[in-house]
Every structure is written in C-alpha cells, then in structure tokens.
C-alpha cells in the first residue's frame, strides 16, 4: 500500500471499503449472528461457566476447588468409563457405516432395473426417528420378537438370541440410522468422480481392483474422511437408543446418559455441563485427528460434476 | 500388443434402447494408417470408437485383429491406447505418474518404467512439468500428457476421441501438427474421431464420413474433397451452398436444374451429375463459396452467357477475411455464400456464376447412396 502513497486513490470511500469486502451485503450476516449468539455462543459460555461452579458436595468429595467437576470426571470410574463405552459404540458404528456404504454406492452408480426402489429402501430409515427405530427393534428382535420366534419355530436356535437391551441393540440402531446418511454422502462424492477416469484406467490395462485402489479410492478418500467424521459425531451423541434398546447402566452407559443422569436424577447442572463439555472435547479430538489425516490427501478436482 | 497387419470391423453395430447408434460398420485398417471418423454429433462416430476400445459392448458384428476376434476382450486386455475428449487425466497423480500408470499395470520393472516415462514426456515436450499435477497445466499441456499416457504403452492402435475440441483455435492448429508428427515418428496406427472437416482432411490418410450410425463415404481426403458421393458428404467437405432444385434436362454427365427458392423464378444452373438423374428428379445442388464468381453490373448479366448459368441476388453481408472477402448474397429466401477479392457494396445487386464442373448435382434422397469403400 505504501508504494502507491504518492498517488492518492481517487475512488470513493465506499468503493475502497467494498474492495476489502466491506459493503452493505454484510448486513445479511446480522440475523444469523444474532441467532448464533443467542442460541449457541451464550448457552455454551454459560455451560462452561457452570462447570467451574461445582456443588459443595462435589468439592468435598473430589477436591480441586472450582475444578472439582473435572476432577470427578476423570477420577470417578463410573463416569469416566463412559468415554470408552461410547467410543466402543461410535467408532465401530461409524467405521461400518462408511465401509459398508462404499461398495453399495459403487454398485448403485450403474443403471439397472429396480435401482430407484433399492435406493429408496436404503435411504428410507433416515426418515425414522431414533425412538421409532428403537421401538421397531424391540418388536422385531426382542426376546419375544418375531425374529426370535421364527428362528425358534424352524428349529434353528434353542433359546432366544439376545439382540436387544445390550451392546448389539444399540449397534443395530446406530447402523440403521447412520448407514443411509453415510450412503447418501458417499454416493454424492462418488458421482463427483468423472467416469471417464475409470474408462481411461481400463484402456491402460487396469483391472477392477486396480481401478478402485489406484483411481477411485484416492479420489474418494477425503469424502470418506468427511463422512466418517459426520457419522461418528452422530453416533457419539447416541442417547435414546442407548436407553431404549441398550443396557443403560451397563455396557451402553454412554456419555450422554451420564450427563442426563447428573442433570435429571442428581439435579447437578454443573456436573451435567462438565460431562457434556467433555463429550464435545472427545468428539473434537477425533474430528481434528481425522481431518488432519484428510489434509494429507489429494483434495483437488475429481473431474466430475460434483 | 505390438505390431499387427490389419484391423477389421465387420458389420459392427450398437443399439441403445431400440435405436441404432451405429450399424453395419465395415472397415479395414492397415497398420500405420491414420483414419478419421467424421460426422456431426450423434452420427455414431464416438460410439464406433468406444466399441473399438471395448468401453461399449457390440450388439452386432465382430472386430478382428489379424483375424483374431477381439470384440469379446475387456478393454484392459485389448492393448489399445485411448485419448479422451476430456483428457481424463488422473487428477491426483503427477504427470509422470499418469504416464507411468499403464506401464505399472503391465508390471514392468521400475527402471524400464522410469526410462520409458521420461522418453514419452520428452516426446511431448513436457520435461519441466513432469512433477506437476494435471490441474496445474494448461489445456494444451494436459492434452499432451493424455497423448503421452496413451503412446507410452506402444499400443497397436491409438484411439482419439475429439482430442482437440476443448482447445482454442491457435492451440488446435499446433496440436494438430503435433499429433501428425507423433503418428509418423512413432509409426502408430491411429483412429481419430472429429466433427471438424479441416482437422480430418489435414490429419488423416483416409476419412470415414458417417451419418445416423451409417457410413456415407470412405476415401482419401482428396477423393472426398474432390468427388463427394452425396450432398451430405459435400456439405462436410466445404460445399457451403447446398440448394434444393429440380432436374430440367440431362445430357451426358451434365444436368440443367431449376432453383425454386431463388429470385425471379426459373433460374437455371448447369452442373455435373453425381449418380443417375432424370428429368423431374428432386436434387440438391452443391457449390463451394470459392467456386462462385461474383460479378456486378450487367456485363456478364443475362444468365445464359456463362457456362453454368448465373444467379442474381443482392449482397447482404460482407466479411473481411484478409486476402479475400466472404460475401453473403441473398437470393429469394436463401443466402448464398461466395468469396471475392474485391468487396462489393452491401445492398448492391450481383450475379453469381460457377463453372459447370464445379457445380455438383446430387439426388436429394440420402438413403439411395450406397457407401463405397475405396482402398487406401
């Protein structure tokens, strides 16, 4: 800027501001900012504030002064173990949803009879709420559910399989709600890859596995990472199904349940906020790690319409 | 892989949902030939290329390489190189790695891959860009990478699908020369698809003009340029004036036709008949713009004085083209195109005449034309 100092800009102030991106269009940000501050920034800050106002009982039990809640979170195995329990559900569920979506989305790129029907069936569960899914799972896969009854009837099993009210039940629920989401995302990433790239690889002598491994996968990888992050966050905050089709005080004692317990049963808002905050922290660590890995990948154009 | 004697297409056809995109394509290509498939979009030329590459299965006919059927082989086992219209470079791989891809698929030793890649990249003059990603290159450079990637495998056949259509006019000329140079210096056999007659004429040893999935004419550039067998081919070969007319009389190879659409009903032209014509037949008359002589005033006026007859009209457009002017002459409902060294006055009245042997008269029906194969 100093170089042009001798020659004073003749453009009006408005023009010069616009040049730096300052113009009346910025006012369009105001409603969004108001909503963000009112519904997110303020409550979030308030929540953080709460975490450093532990109850007297907490301070007495765990020490640590205003950080008693954090001390409690890391020292109380009943609370802290929920991190691992949630991870044990969310990581495999997200991984499965992403990995299972890839072949399905690959196949559904081609045109064939019944493709629309199949796609609709795969995506339909996204419209079901988690509560409805849980209800369905209980009726279908419960001890008295008709899956078990049918299997008993045809003599395949001697006693009912324990498919709900445990780890498996929650996993089923996470897959049912998470898979359509992952599938839709990955389908759109795939459609962004120019089909002529694969044709070119074909004419260069690459078989299907080499085409997938060398061309499609590297171009899809950033999309897979993004999809993983989103499905992981979705699965990590599991609450209704952990309670309804899980084992709420046992192997599916997830973090959101612990936060709810502190809030609803113990009336300890401060501890509930602490658990919620730590939940966010764990998610953030995973998201940052995955996105960090993603930044190492090729992220340019993929030639297609996407 | 490697050399072959001849590639033979026998009755090759492809149907899409009940519509023939390509039918009855018979063509024999000898090693070292440069064959261009020419036609407008939707004429089946790209379909033919994709069938050859194996990217589209045939619905009819067979493809033989030295008598061995190859149309049943998957594309990855045909060993043909293909250059795509969109280049189809792998965006996540550097220029080097794009070029090396095919060699790696063949499982060649690393040292050989490296030296052949380096050779191919220097062949297309991209040595300094070897480490760049395709996205960092210009359109012409990307196109050269695509060509290097195809020819590094020393394929028996190189298929090119409108490779220059995404380049600007000047670059297109340069790349055209480049492609011809590579074809000759590497002794390639090339099949080249284009809708640009100039490109086809300048590059190919032999042209195949296609329409609605069928071959219209096969021949050397010279044969097609000088003696098209239908007005459709003539249209592609620069006969910009194609006029509907009716035969008045015939004598020997010469026909007199009446142009209905022109001013002063009953303008007659004499031309050379292509195919059998009789009085009363509906025909199309084809004349190149550069074969028209534009004269002003009444010196050559009265129609009957010059050999082929002359067409009166009014100058409506004059374009400057350097050494000459392109002139649009409105006559009745039709606009005729002519070329002249001196620019006539816009709005002035002129006469257009053309030598008899430069006026070609074709039957109107295109289906009557039997495609003829001319040996190269």
Reconstruct the topology from this structure:
The complex is a heterodimer of chains A (about 300) and B (about 375).
Chain A: H1 13-19, H2 29-51, H3 56-62, H4 68-75, H5 77-107, H6 115-123, H7 130-141, H8 146-153, H9 167-191, H10 195-203, H11 208-236, H12 240-244, H13 255-265, H14 269-294
Helix pairs in contact in A: 2-14, 3-4, 5-9, 5-11, 7-9, 9-11, 10-11, 11-14, 13-14
Chain B: E1 6-16, E2 19-30, E3 34-38, H1 45-53, E4 60-65, E5 68-69, E6 80-83, H2 95-105, H3 110-123, H4 139-151, E7 157-161, H5 169-186, E8 190-194, H6 197-203, E9 206-211, E10 214-219, H7 221-226, H8 231-236, E11 241-251, E12 254-259, E13 267-273, E14 282-287, E15 293-296, E16 310-320, E17 325-331, E18 334-340, E19 349-353, E20 360-363
Parallel strand pairs in B: 3-8, 3-9, 6-7, 7-8, 13-20
Antiparallel strand pairs in B: 1-2, 1-4, 4-5, 9-10, 11-12, 11-14, 12-13, 14-20, 15-19, 16-17, 16-19, 17-18
Commentary on this structure:
The complex is a heterodimer of chains A (about 300) and B (about 375). Chain A has helices spanning about 15-20, 30-50, 55-60, 70-75, 75-105, 115-125, 130-140, 145-155, 165-190, 195-205, 210-235, 240-245, 255-265, 270-295. In chain A, about 70% of the residues lie in helices and about 0% in strands. The longest helix of chain A has about 30 residues, at about 75-105. Chain A contains 14 helices and no strands. Chain A is an all-alpha fold and about 300 residues long. Chain A has one domain (about 80-295): MetI-like fold, CATH 1.10.3720.10. Mean pLDDT of chain A is about 90; it is low at about 1-5. The radius of gyration of chain A is 26 Å and the shape is flat. Chain B folds into 2 domains: about 5-230, Rossmann fold (3-Layer(aba) Sandwich), CATH 3.40.50.300; about 240-365, OB fold (Dihydrolipoamide Acetyltransferase, E2P) (Beta Barrel), CATH 2.40.50. Chain B starts with 5 loop residues before the first strand and ends in a 13-residue tail after the last strand. Chain B has helices at about 45-55, 95-105, 110-125, 140-150, 170-185, 195-205, 220-225, 230-235; strands at about 5-15, 20-30, 35-40, 60-65, 70, 80-85, 155-160, 190-195, 205-210, 215-220, 240-250, 255-260, 265-275, 280-285, 295, 310-320, 325-330, 335-340, 350-355, 360-365. With about 375 residues, chain B is an alpha+beta fold. Chains A and B meet through helix 10 and helix 11 of A and strand 6 and helix 2 of B.
